[in-house]
Batch of 4 targets.
Target 1
Amino acid sequence: MPVSINVVVAYVVGIIFLFILGRFLLFPLKVILKLVYNALLGAVVLLLINLVGGLFGFRIALNFFSAFIAGVLGIPGIALLIILKLIFKV
């Protein structure tokens, strides 16, 4: 049973298309996983700062803004929140 060259070319093009599609879908997954990692790390550090800082009267308010900054930026976001808290003395 001979296989036509058209069928072979169609399979090769299909495999290449699936490979390219997989690469495009993998990139957003990496970005999402990095955001989830930053969000978890930021939340844990924000919680620790509020627990330890509460002993010294230093707390960072838990609201949408601080959670967003800590979630997107992670540790640098927490540092930014601390610096803003110290500068504006809020």
Target 2
Amino acid sequence: MILTRKTIELTQHLIKRNYGISAVLLSKASDPIQQLFVDKVREYGLKSKGQLFVDATPSIEKEYKDEISKAERHYGGGKGVDMKKFPDFKFSQPKIEIN
């Protein structure tokens, strides 16, 4: 009997909580500022698909390319070198002379 009462109380609590949460999620945005925020988030999501930067000016893109090329030169990259690939290490056995 005690286990059943606890189970019923827990179930009632979960139903009330889930109903309260789902009511908020299913409601429309009635606040104009909230609706503006939702619209801007959706707009940003559409703009950001497939782009490196959102609303980037040509100077920002040029600065980005310059920094990437500087890092490639500094760390041994260049044309035809895949900087994302892990480097291959080759260790050879030294020749030891025994006298």
Target 3
Amino acid sequence: MYKIKRKATSKRFHPHPRRLTVTLRPKDKVDIDYDQANPPHLYFDTNVLRGLNEKDADALRRLQSQRGFQYRYSMLNFTELVSHLDDPPTDDVPDPFRKFQAPFKKMLPLFHQNSLPSPEMVLMQATGLKHYLDSKWVVDFIDIAKQVSIIAEATSLEDIQKHDINPAHYKKLRQFDSESFISMMTGADTLDKPLSITDESATWLLHIYSFLIYRASGGRIRLAALSRSQQSRVIKFFNEVGGTMFKVHLLKLLQKTINDGRTKYGNDFYDLLQLLLLRDTNLLFVTDDSPFFSYYAGPEHHRVVPWRGFKASAGN
């Protein structure tokens, strides 16, 4: 288990605000180094939000009070949770609405009311392609905050449907994204084993980048249709903050899939997308999913901390 330790920032030696970093130390310790005058904002893997109990919420409140952290939810959290609100009952989940409403109830008093921008907004802004961004990816922060409140306070599925919140829409979006990503991962089966970084695998990465641009633009543009300077800017982004984590995580995922025969999961796409949010250099991502800790991309890029260690640090 990781133990999270905050490093104090000395004004004597660091007169200017320091960039948020996460450094791995011996014995599975994690140092989170940040400017105490500007504490980081944190966002969470959806599985963390789904499992959030009162003890966890109390730990978050203590950390917020002690260290000034701000908690945020992502549009991916919103999409994944809302998509399950109209799931049919099963023996294991007799009341899906209550199960997936519960995270919204926990989020409402703890989290900043505004969501983070969508990964699509971040991507197109960072690559200089904002003018191609499809309007459906532009977050109406006031409206989403209102929807979160409506869902948290609803007594039934019908209550949210009266406000034009449609879980089926998000379910279809997730299904489309899942099928598209699995198709692309299947296309990578032609790469040589064991996977190495070659011209062939680099070309395959460009197909992924092109899909991201195509999707974010609502089908209006692909990488090949951009000018050379625009293409270079897109490729450059995936070597910068936010983009680097996406690329490294994707390559690790690809290695597992090609070399070890790992099953292709559509939800891996959303795991990748949420890493784009780390373009904001004062954001931390909290998760307990082991793939995020199977590599280390460096202190300024790998701003990912383990949930168990993070909440345990509330007692330190």
Target 4
Amino acid sequence: MSTQPQKPSSSLGPSSSTKEANLSDHATLKYRSDGPAKDVTVRLQYLKDLPMYKTIKPLQITPNFQDTEGKTNVVLEAGPEETIRDVRSIDQPFDLDNNGFKFVRASTSFANWSSQPAIAEHYLQEMETLLHQEVEEVDEVLFYDARIRQSGDEGLRVEGLSFNPFAKQVHRDNTDVSCVEKIRNLTDLKADFLLRGRSRIINIWRPIKHPVYDCSLAVADGSNLHADDVIECDRHLAKTGTYHDTMGVVTYRPGFHWYYCSEMEPDGVLLFKNYDSSTAAQARYCLHTAFDLPPEMIPKNAPTRESIEVRALVFTYPAGQRRPSIVASLSSHPLARTLAKGELRRLDHERSITDRTRTDIDEAGEVKDAMLLLRKQEIKRLEHLCEEQEQLTQRAKQERDNAYAHTEKLQRQMSIKTDRIESLEAELKLVQHKLNQSSSELRFQLNQAQRDLVDARRVSLEQHLERERLLEFVRGQEGQIQRWKEEAMGRGNEAVSNCWQASVDEAVKREREKDGWLIKNLQEEISRLQSKDSSLMASPRNVEANTE
């Protein structure tokens, strides 16, 4: 699923100022009211402290319609006046482990609250991101239920009536027994593994469309609850009478610490814990209830409360054990599957106005208000039926007009297509006539083309043979040229060799002639020298002879 993660949320009230340095500008917008605190004093609805509850377990039929009278022994009464403090003026930070609840700021861009598939695809993704941001040690989240409360009368509130379409009984959604049963039913094979770790059920409550003016949600600090404050009450299905689950009902005692956020806006979220398997947590759950604000605090013509509450199983895997190979995807959550199919029932299908007014009549004596509410609701229902009938009539008329227009359009298209078909038929006849007239010519052309093709094939074959012959001739010529080349090279080499030998012989001959000439000259020179030497030797003898 595919939404973008929202910016980190921050605690509502003064406690958020301690975190401003670590949060984005969007997350740290001032939420504390500049005016005086709007603490309220009201009487909340509790289980009546009857002796029978010491021996008989409370039993409630769900859905609790008027025809279930006598089938339930749950009797409610208004407790003494109690003060519900406004968290906007409290410096104390609240958290889930120590108090069981936490007010945070978490803006949402989602607005399509009438589309259950859209809620499954987008809003649940934002809430999973919010849980990872605001809750410690979250390994896996599984959404399983939701309550979408929207106004049935265009959001208008009738002055002077204490009409409250929400659960205004101090209670705990489930007890430990049904919480463990719920975990086992929803997680199947992984249940044993998940129950060895830490399991929590956390409700995410947010106003939608506008601030809360008339009927807010109060939570009791879980850190000062007693073990016997919550009485287990079995709930059975009205249709079958079979066991459904257990819830926690509460009798009044002094000492409950109640809190709410005045005029809480759609960017505010209340996280409150319904179950925690960890015994180390100071608050393992907290009580909650809807309550009517005093009439003097409600602006004139203020819209009635509209809100969404999502319930989630939050798991921390057991330490030191191998994590599961498969973690539930958002699309596999039971709540996501229900919303994707649009099967989440409207709240007024589960809790009838007769049940709410029955409580008012039996416990508070508001007979007049109850009858006015019944009449007002019946009028609204009739008006709604009339509007639906008018819408159906208009829709039928529009569909009829659309059908007429569509029929006329189809008739025009049919006429155009008929004309086109007639035109094509005429063209087809003309083509057939031309084909019949030119069939002989076409046959002649075909025969001529066949003859030309045969001639072309014959010529092609002859050309192929001629080409092969020419190639063979060329190869023969190339061989002859190679032989001539080799022969020429041989003769050339021989001629060069003979020429070279003749040159050598001529050079030798010349050298020999030169040597002979030199020898002859040397011999003549030797002879001349010998003659000269002989004459020289003869001269001394003549001198000696003359001397004598």
